[in-house]
Design brief:
145 residues, alpha/beta, Rossmann fold, 2 domains, 5 strands, elongated
């Protein structure tokens, strides 16, 4: 997939050079066909840790790097993670200060034996759609005591 993506990228950069287009027309057509017919559709990750927002161990790093790598390959990737009331350093409101510009979108209600309302915050980083769910009592901090 990466090879096909690279052929398409080179062809797009060389679009003004008619001789180059003639040389790569067949490989370009094949690469586009392979690339477009091998999209997986939306890939969804649900994780308790994610990158710079809540990584405590290796899980957050792995999900962050995997989701970014899949997005670079042209896949649609969505990651859902808790928006903890306090990050691993004890700070609150850290998502609003993030340079990615996350926005509060809405609330959703989940009913189990009680009705729980979660705040939904969304943003996009490196082509990955990130959705954070916030409830201070349910998600006080990553791996609370």
């Amino acid at each position: 997939m990466a090879f096909c993506g690279r052929i398409i990228e080179v062809a797009d950069r060389s679009a003004q050079d008619l001789q180059t287009i003639a040389l790569i027309k067949s490989p370009l057509t094949a690469a586009k066909m392979v690339f477009e017919t091998n999209k997986m559709g939306p890939i969804l990750f649900c994780t308790p840790e994610l990158g710079r927002w809540s990584t405590v161990g290796g899980l957050g790093v792995m999900v962050d790097e995997l989701s970014l790598g899949l997005a670079e390959l042209g896949q649609e990737v969505i990651v859902i993670s808790p928006y903890y009331d306090r990050d691993r350093k004890g700070k609150t409101g850290y998502l609003a200060l993030d340079p990615a510009g996350f926005e509060y979108v809405d609330n959703i209600s989940v009913t189990t034996d009680v009705n729980i309302t979660l705040g939904v915050h969304e943003g996009t980083v490196g082509g990955v759609k990130l959705v954070f769910l916030h409830h201070s009592e349910i998600f006080p901090s990553p791996y609370p005591d």
